[in-house]
Design the sequence.
């Protein structure tokens, strides 16, 4: 394998790894930190429900779907940038 191919592969992996780390941090925040703060968040209401309840029942699910969408969109951009996209 040539040095140029190795450099491209390393840059591709670096960007993919950083994206994966970002997604995992966001996922941990919405699955661990927000539920840990339920008591504090329950002092505020949203749509007539305690905010802690709303964030666990609806907000986290919405956040997870958005995280999945973002990760897929961003990985497609990275794949296209390095020539690994579907449209080759």
Sequence:
């Amino acid at each position: 394998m040539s040095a140029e191919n190795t450099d491209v592969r390393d840059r591709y992996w670096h960007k993919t790894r950083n994206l994966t780390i970002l997604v995992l941090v966001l996922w941990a925040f919405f699955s661990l930190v927000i539920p840990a703060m339920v008591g504090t968040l329950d002092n505020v209401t949203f749509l007539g429900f305690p905010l802690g309840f709303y964030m666990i029942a609806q907000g986290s699910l919405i956040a997870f779907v958005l995280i999945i969408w973002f990760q897929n969109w961003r990985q497609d951009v990275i794949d296209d940038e390095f020539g690994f996209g579907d449209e080759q």
